[in-house]
Amino acid sequence: MLPSVASLPVAHAGSGDPTGWLESDWTLQPSVVLGLLAIVAAYLYWTGPRNRRRADAARRPVSGRQRVAFVSGVLTLLVALGPPLDDWADHYLLTAHMVQHLLLTLLAPPLLLGGIPAWLLEPIVRRPLLARIGYGLTRPLVAFGLANVVFAGWHVPALYEAALASEAVHVLEHNLFLGTALLAWWPILGPLPAWPRLSPPLQCLYFFAQTLPGALVGAFITFAAPGLYRPYDTARRVFGVDLATDQELAGLLMWVATSTIYLLLITVIFFRWSAGADADARGHAPARTQPMAKGS
User: Fold this and answer.
1) Residue 7 has pLDDT above 60, yes or no
2) Would residue 1 count as lying in a domain?
3) Is residue 3 part of a domain?
């Protein structure tokens, strides 16, 4: 099976300001590289050679699109946890840290879920206890609540500053972001029928609800006095971005950008559902009676 979220690689180095080109040392942490390579290798082996050796391989398909999605999700994690973004986030810019968090919660999880075939997870639901736990955690209200409590909680200044001060705490933060974001995306993209997705109309409602926590936290960051997170008060200002602008951009990114993404997804889901419903209605419509010919 794939490595658990708890075994994901260390998130950042966190020692000394970068001094290289574009304010980054351009050094990939071995734990990040090796951890992500291990995840990709396990996935490709389990869905490739390991699967082809099984007698029922024909009933365990995995498409090229799924493989591309999963590998893209892992590459998104590499971008989020590697240079230059990780250097900027840890040392200079709240905005970069927000981009990092959004990659971990809005882009990587749907790509990873979109790449996992249902049969890869079916052994989990064969174990009654794990099946009940997984079902409970992937229900929309639970998944929504856990993901948003975790995301909002880590943006409380005390916890946010603790993550910047301690590598271990920062690793915990990022793993919780990714783990709970996978749960939050499950009602939309979950591959297991035993832990079902929402219907399209409810998916639209679910995404609308997802706009609210980010908007509240983003508005709070945007309108708070500059210096909400103390480590950035003394950070060297880079790329001409001052402290107040950095904080406002970070808040707007969480507030406006995430809401826009969710609203676009609502639009796509609604029109796809509407088009499908129209096609079904036309397919079930009774055939029009042909007029009888004269003289018959």
Assistant:
1) no
2) no
3) no
